[in-house]
């Protein structure tokens, strides 16, 4: 099974939004309140993706496997207030549930590391939802370590906790 990478274009938005929603529901069903997950819709994801593609500071790359978008990653300059110029951020990475555990996430992470290095970054940080052990293990396998920074966010009236991980590239 061959996987290729491509820049996400406006024509891809609906397919990526559907993948994003399916992967969110699978990844977070045991970690987030049902009411919060019920608030998500493909239409809201489409609007989000239109904003992402309008932002030239965010790189959005899709993996294509067997002619289908199998995953995506978004990355760019760190959005954190304590950032430095040499730190980039892996903003999001999601894999279609049908393509999990096939190495696609590793392909995307390796691409991000290579691209960030070529853009002059020396490290990459990311945020992981508290309790998301599988994500923490995945990132740890790719060299990321916890940096003992956490934050509280509110989405649709629900508080969530995240912790930061970081890798030197």
Q: Can you walk me through this structure?
A:
The protein has 169 residues and is an alpha+beta fold. The protein is 34% helix and 36% strand. It has one domain (3-122): Gcn5-related N-acetyltransferase (GNAT) (Aminopeptidase). The protein has a seven-stranded mixed sheet. Strand 6 and strand 7 (158-168) form a beta hairpin. Helix 1 crosses helix 3 (42-54). It starts with a strand and ends with a strand.
Helix content: 25-40%
Secondary structure class reads alpha+beta
Distance between the termini: 28 Å
Q: Order the strands across the largest sheet as they lie in space.
A: 1-2-3-4-5-7-6
Listing every helix as H and every strand as E from the N terminus to the C terminus, the arrangement reads EHHHEEEHEHEE
Brief sketch in words of this structure:
By secondary structure, the chain is an alpha+beta fold.
Which secondary structure elements does this structure contain, and how are they paired or packed?
Elements: E1 3-7, H1 13-28, H2 34-38, H3 42-54, E2 58-65, E3 68-77, E4 87-95, H4 104-118, E5 123-129, H5 133-141, E6 145-155, E7 158-168
Helix pairs in contact: 1-3
Q: Which terms would index this structure?
A:
alpha+beta, 169 residues, Aminopeptidase, seven-stranded mixed β-sheet
């Amino acid at each position: 099974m061959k996987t290729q990478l491509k820049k996400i274009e406006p024509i891809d938005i609906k397919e990526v939004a559907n993948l994003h929603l399916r992967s969110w529901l699978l990844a977070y069903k045991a970690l987030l309140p049902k009411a919060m997950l019920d608030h998500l819709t493909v239409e809201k994801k489409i609007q989000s993706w239109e904003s992402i593609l309008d932002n030239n500071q965010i790189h959005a790359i899709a993996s294509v496997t067997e002619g289908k978008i199998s995953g995506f990653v978004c990355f760019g300059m760190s959005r954190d207030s304590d950032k430095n110029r040499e730190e980039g951020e892996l903003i999001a990475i999601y894999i279609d549930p049908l393509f999990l555990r096939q190495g696609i996430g590793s392909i995307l992470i390796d691409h991000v590391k290579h691209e960030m290095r070529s853009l002059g970054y020396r490290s990459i940080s990311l945020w992981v939802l508290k309790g998301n052990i599988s994500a923490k293990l995945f990132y740890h396998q790719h060299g990321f370590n916890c940096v003992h920074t956490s934050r509280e966010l509110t989405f649709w009236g629900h508080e969530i906790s995240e912790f930061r991980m970081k890798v030197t590239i």
